[in-house]
Model the fold of this input.
Amino acid sequence: MYPLILTILSLPAVWAASDGQNGEATWATKYNFCGGVYQSPLDFHHSILQYDSTLVPIKVNGYNASITDLFTLSNNGHTVSLSMLPSMYIEIPPFKYFASHIHFHWGDLASPKGSEHCVGGKRFAAEMHIVHYNSKYKDVSIAMNAADGLAVLGILIEVGSFNPFFDRMISQLTHVQYKGQESQIPGFNLQDLLPERLDEYYRYEGSLTTPPCNPSVLWTVFRNPVFISEEQLRSLVTALHCDDGNGSDPVEMTNNFRQLQQEGERLVSVSFREGVVMAVALASILGSLVIIGVVCYLFNRKRRSKKNQPKKVVYTLAMATDENTSKV
Ligand SMILES: [Zn+2]
Done:
C-alpha cells in the first residue's frame, strides 16, 4: 500500500540523512535525476514568482479519519512517515490524486532550521510533505516514474505555541526511534495539520527531494506556516535514528533536508497577490515618490539659490511732485 516507502527502503545504502551535504553530493553519481533538471526544493524569491489567477483553493477530501481507523507511524531510516487512507484524495484539475503518506524534514539542535523550501531566503524550522499520486496510475511507485505522477502538499513549520494535532505523532516518536520500527496511531482529522488558509500557496513543477529524485512532482507549498512548540520541535529533531539500533554506533536522524536547487527556466506560480503584485506596486509607488522627492529638492534648491542671490536694487529717482505729495 505504501510502495514509495518500500522503494526508498529497498534502495542501496549509498545515502543517508545524517550525511548531510556530503551524502547529497554523491546522489547524482548513482541517480541521474538527482543531477538533472526540474529538481526540488526551491527558494521562492520575488524574481521567479508569477501571480496566477486560475489557482483555486486546495480542497482535501476524506482527511477526517475516524478514531477507529489506524494510521501507521514508521521510521524508514531517512524520515518518520505516517500512512494515509485510500479514501483520502485531492483534486488539482484535470487530475485526482490519491493520498499516500506524510513525512517530515528537519535540522538539528545546533541549527534548528530544516525546511526544504525557503521563502525569500528564509529557511523555516521544519517541513511536512503530504504525498499524493495521480489516480490514473495503479500505485505510487508506478506514478513516481511519470511526469504527471505525484502531487505533494508542502507545509512549512515554524516555532510557536504547542500544537495538539502534531502531538498525536510527536508524542509517539519514542516508539519508532530506530529504522524499521512502526507504531499504530488512532485516526484523526489530518486537515488539522494544515494551515488555515488553503487558498494561498506556491505551485511549481519539481522533483522528489530524496533519491531517486524523479522530476514527477507537482508541488503545492502553502504560504502560511503551521506552528509547533520549541519542545515539540526538539522532540522531532532528537528522537529518531537512521540505524536499526543493533549496531554499537547509533546514527542520529538529523538534517534530513535537501539543499536548494536551481530553478533554471522555471517560474513559480502563486495564488495570492500580496507580496508579489503588491511588491511591484509598492516598488512603483516608492520609485515615483523618489522621483517626486528629487524633483522637489531640485526645485527648492533652485529657489533658495535665487533667494540668496544679491538683489538687484534699482535706484529710481523720487519723482515726487507737488501732486503726489498732496495725496498723502
Ligand atoms: Zn519530503
